[in-house]
Design brief:
Helix content is about 50%, strand content about 15%. The chain is α/β, with parallel strands linked by helices and about 210 residues long. The protein is globular. It comes from Streptomyces broussonetiae.
Amino acid sequence: MDLRAALTAHRLVAIVRGDDPDAALRTVLTLTEEGIELVEVSLTGKSALTVIERARQALGPGRPLGAGTVLTASDARAAREAGADFAVTPALGEGIGAAIEAGMPVLAGVMTPTEIVAARGLGAAALKIFPAAQAGGPGYLKALRGPFPHEPFVPVGGVDEDAARAYLAAGATAVGVGSPLVGDAADGGSLTDLRARARAFRALAEEFTP
C-alpha cells in the first residue's frame, strides 16, 4: 500500500490496544464501519496477532490494517503473516527494515531531527512524532517543519480532539489517536460510545482532507 498517500487522504490513524481480544476485534470492525480507514492494532495488546488475523479475515484483502509497536524483526514478520499491511514503531529499530523487507511500509517513531534523518535513511514512509505531547505539542511540529517542510509527520501520544485539530492545522499529515478515540471499547466498553467518538474524529479529520 501507499502509506503516505493513505495518511494524506484520511488524516487519522486509530490505535487499538486492549486486554480482551474479542472486544479488540469488535473495536477494529466498529471503527471501520464508522469510516475510520486506517486502524493499527498494537502488538502490546492481548493476543494482538490473533486480533489482526481475525480482523483481516473479516475485512477482506482490500482494507488497510496496521500492526503497532513493532520493535523487532520477528514482530514485523509475525505481523505480516497475520495480515497486516503496514507497520508502526515507537522508535528506530530492527523492526523497520524487517517490515519493509516483508512488504509493509512503516510509520516510524521519531522525536529528534537526528532520528528523522535516520528514519528516512532506513526507508520509513512516514514519521510518527512520539510522544508528541511530551515533545512539545503543535509548537514542536511547527519547529520541525522548518528544516523538514515536506516530511509526512504523524503526531501520536496524548492526541485528543483539540490537539488533533491543532496538529493538523500546524501541518501534520495525519494524527494517531488511541484512548481519546478508542476509550475502553477494546476492553469491553460501549460500542455505542465508540461510534460517537469515531464520528466526531472522522468529521474533524474531514475538515483537513484535501
